[in-house]
Amino acid sequence: MRVAIAGAGAVGRSIAGELLENGHEVLLIDKAPSAISVERVPLAEWLLADACEITSLDEAALQRCNVVIAATGDDKVNLVVSLLAKTEYGVPRVVARVNNPKNEWLFNESWGVDVAVSTPRLMSALVEEAVSVGDLVRLLRFSQGDANLVELTLPPESGLAGTRVGDVEWPEDTSLVTIIRGNRVLTPNREDALEAGDELLFVAAPAREEQLEDLLSVRREDTAG
C-alpha cells in the first residue's frame, strides 16, 4: 500500500515509521526544509514541497496513493490537503489530523475526509475507556457513512453475559467488530459467548449508540422492576 503523509513533524514521522514497519510504501511531504530529516526515517520517500499546491501533489503522484494522511499542525492545511486528495486525485482513503477540537465539525466528507482523528478527543476517550465499565465510549468518528467506533466494557450485571453473539438482537446499523478478552483479540462469530469484562468494539450509527448502551449495560429484568 502506498501512503502519502503531509506533514513531516513528530506526528508524521511517527506514523511513517509504523507504516514502514508494516511493509507499506510511505512518502513524507513538507514545505519546511528544516522538517526534511531523511536520516530519521531513512526508508521513506521525502518531498520538499507545499502539499496545498497542485503542482506539488502532481510531483508526489498522489493518484497512485491508496491513502493520504493530512498530519500537519495546521487544521486549514489539513483540510485543503484532504479536499485536493479526494476531489482532484480520487484517493480512496483520506485521514486527517484535527488539532483544534473547535474545528472538528469541518472534518467530514464535504472536505474529503474519511476519518478525522482529534488528539484531545482520543486522549479523553482513552481515559474514559480505562475507567468506564458499562458506559459507551466513542473512540473514533468515521466521516464517510456517518458512523463511529465505540467501545463498551461488559459489566458483570449485564443481562447479556453468557449469551452467544448470534443470539443477541443487535440494533440496526451496528456491527460488533472485535472482542478484547484479557490479552486476546477475538474476531466474533455467532457461537462466541459474551463474558463480563469483555471489551466490545462496535461500528455504529450515532443514532443507535444509546440503544446499544441500554442493551449491553443493565439486566433487563432489573430495569423492569
UniProtKB/TrEMBL annotation:
**What's a Gene Ontology MF term here?**
potassium ion transmembrane transporter activity
Which of UniProt's keywords are assigned here?
Ion transport, NAD, Potassium, Potassium transport, Transport
Q: Name one GO cellular component term.
A: plasma membrane
Residue ranges occupied by any RCK N-terminal domain in the UniProt entry: 1-117
Q: Which Pfam families match?
A: TrkA_C, TrkA_N
Which InterPro entries has this protein been placed in?
A: K_uptake_TrkA (IPR006036), NAD(P)-bd_dom_sf (IPR036291), RCK_C (IPR006037), RCK_C_sf (IPR036721), RCK_N (IPR003148), Trk_Ktr_HKT_K-transport (IPR050721)
Query: Could you tell me which residue ranges the RCK C-terminal domain spans?
Result: 137-218
What name goes with this protein? Trk system potassium uptake protein TrkA
* Annotated organism of origin: Streptomyces mashuensis
